[in-house]
Amino acid sequence: MKNLSRRNFVKNVSLATAATATFSTADAKNIKDIFVHHVYFWLKNPNSEADKSKLLEGLEKLSKVPTIRMVHIGSPASTNRSVIERGYAVSWLCFFDNLEEEEIYQKHPIHLKFVEDYSYLWEKVIVYDAIGPKR
């Protein structure tokens, strides 16, 4: 368990470092071009830790798609305000350099295999795609 905790710590530090590097001031002019893809999964068996673990396994595999610039896999936070949706089981947030890179991801064999192998786990999926505002 100690190694797992250390591994998670190193992974989180790496993600924070990557986020800082990805969105540094030097790149600020390019942030408006970033394509954000945020997916929320509701499981068919919401109380099944095995199903949630299986979905997380699939998302880890999915994170290997080469056009993904940065990824975050999450669960609902303990925050509690009227505007917060906490009914989902897992969220999948990834950033792409542009729409074209996200379209490559959608057709990539790893993504297609993820849907084929893991879609039996969820009853509902909501996707929010966003780009920077036109100025």
TrEMBL record:
<dbReference type="InterPro" id="IPR011008">
    <property type="entry name" value="Dimeric_a/b-barrel"/>
</dbReference>
<dbReference type="InterPro" id="IPR006311">
    <property type="entry name" value="TAT_signal"/>
</dbReference>
<protein>
    <recommendedName>
        <fullName>Stress-response A/B barrel domain-containing protein</fullName>
    </recommendedName>
</protein>
<dbReference type="InterPro" id="IPR019546">
    <property type="entry name" value="TAT_signal_bac_arc"/>
</dbReference>
<dbReference type="Pfam" id="PF07876">
    <property type="entry name" value="Dabb"/>
</dbReference>
<feature type="domain" description="Stress-response A/B barrel">
    <location>
        <begin position="35"/>
        <end position="130"/>
    </location>
</feature>
<dbReference type="InterPro" id="IPR013097">
    <property type="entry name" value="Dabb"/>
</dbReference>
